[in-house]
Amino acid sequence: MGKKGESTDILKHISHTIESIWNKSIKLNLQKNIACIKKENKITWELTAEANKKAEPMVILLSILVKELNRVLYDAILLSILSEVIKGKTKTREEEKRINKLIGNLMSREWLVEQYRRAVITGCNLPDCELLIQISAMEYEKRFTTSSLCFYSDDKCPEESREMKFLGGKNLDFSVSNLRTIKKYMELAGKKNVLVLTASNKRDKLKYRMVGIASNVDDDDCVFLDITSKLSWKIYRKDPRSKIVLLEYKEGIFKIPVLERGEEAGQQIAKIDNYLSGYSKYVEKIKSTIEAAVTNASHGTSLVFIGDKEEKCNQEVGFLEKEITRLANVNRARQIEPIDLKKHVEISEGIFDIDGAVFLDMKGKCHAVGVIVDGIAKVSGDAGRGARYNSLYTYGTGLIDHSDIIFVIAIISEDGMVSVMTGDEIKKKVEDECKNKGK
User: Fold this and answer.
1) Which tens digits make up the pLDDT trace of 195-230?
2) Of 42, 237, 326, 386, whose Cβ has the fewest other Cβ atoms within 10 Å?
3) What is d(CA 134, CA 90) in angstroms, rounded to the nearest whole number?
4) Alpha carbons 306 and 323: distance in angstroms, whole number
């Protein structure tokens, strides 16, 4: 069935095809999360070091991909080897199309998201997605409030996990006819507490019980469903440092957070390369700090990186220090001893949670937190964006007046949208608008 060298080439070709599909057709940023290792006639896929920080969702995703690869790769290899034996020559474009057709599911973003959604719901013993969507849309007594559910396996729910305990052990039918009852008890829990349920599998059917209300559950044996707004929710677990979001839903769209945010952030962060081409020593540090904020800022945040241009770096007090002092003197900033946010994740999560921007130098060290920026609105804002984005944009239009500094502004919204603005980008927007006004 062909020489060993030919088989190895075929495997490499298929691996390259799959990598190409993942990186181009599906448009998910898998390269940083999954490494494809080729050794002789074996291909393995492994989580990268970065992905291990968010292992559970990546393991779910990788399991789906490997299962599908196991199903289709053997046929793809046989087809390719047979073709080479018959033709005695290298693969044609038509043959490559046939190989791609065999691994067709991997070319579909929709297929991957759907398989991932099913794996999360099934693996966490959660009710059907349609029921979760319906309950996230429901009002109670003509009002809508955000609320949370906490699901345990029946044998893993500790007594101390809830302050208010429900007596009686009746199973709850998590169905359309009972959604109003569930919503009622979610209202009882309120915004700051969680309604605790247990799940058990009886005769291949999941049964649920409402067992109480808890104010603070910090346990990796359970999974949470947060209804953040109407028709919007997220499923997550907790680890000692942060939330590990497994799945998000918003107005008809499911998202795989570890990939969706990575893709969006990657596109925005790429702007930094050109802007800081003359300051390459800062690029990776700024990028990694923004990525850490995307991962840990559950309520969104904004980062402002400011540095002096090379010819001004030797001055005794830099622009960043002067600016922080100016804002701190009018109670608009809390100055701190510089700290590397990426190295101190347990502290940085709290820094991201408080109101106001985070001010950093170009080496990624934080100098001030809770910064309320100011500035004069010189150009039009973006009515489609919130106050955080527009206030930082206004502040940036003021920074471009200082020709001796470089700066990067990153805004991470609560829903995960990432926006990066560089000094050059803001300057161009201002110049373009001024030209248009002058016409």
Assistant:
1) 888 888 877 788 888 888 888 777 778 899 998 888
2) 42
3) 54
4) 10
Residue spans per domain, the chain: 4-107, 124-255, 270-438
DSSP string computed for 272-333: HHHHTGGGHHHHHHHHHHHHHHHHH-TT-EEEEEEEE-GGGTTSSS-HHHHHHHHHHTTTS-
Side chain identity at residue 211, one-letter code:
V
Q: Which two tokens stand for residue 287?
A: 């990028």
Angle between helix 4-20 and helix 55-87 axes, rounded to 10 deg: 130
Which residues, including other chains, have CB under 8 Å from residue 299's CB and lie 6 or more apart? Answer: 352, 353, 414
Question: DSSP state, 356?
Answer: S
The class of domain 270-438 in CATH terms is alpha beta
Tally Cβ neighbours within 10 Å of residue 44. Answer: 11
> Which tokens go with 65?
């991909």
CATH code, residues 124-255: 3.40.1700
pTM beyond cutoff 0.70: no
Q: What is the CA radius of gyration of the chain?
A: 26
Tell me the pLDDT tens digit for each residue of 37-86: 655 555 566 666 555 555 777 778 777 877 776 676 655 555 554 455 44
Residue type (1 letter), 75: D
DSSP, res 175: S
- Judge contact between 260 and 270, C-beta under 8 A: no
Same fold, 124-255 and 270-438: yes
Closest CA to 186 of 152, 220, 141, 223: 141
Q: What percent of the chain has pLDDT over 70?
A: 69
Q: 290 near 345, Cβ under 8 Å?
A: no
State pLDDT tens for residues 317-338: 689 999 999 999 999 999 999 9
For 86, phi and psi rounded to 5 degrees?
A: -70, -45
Render pLDDT for 397-433 as a digit per residue (tens, 0 to 9): 999 999 899 999 999 876 667 889 999 999 988 888 8
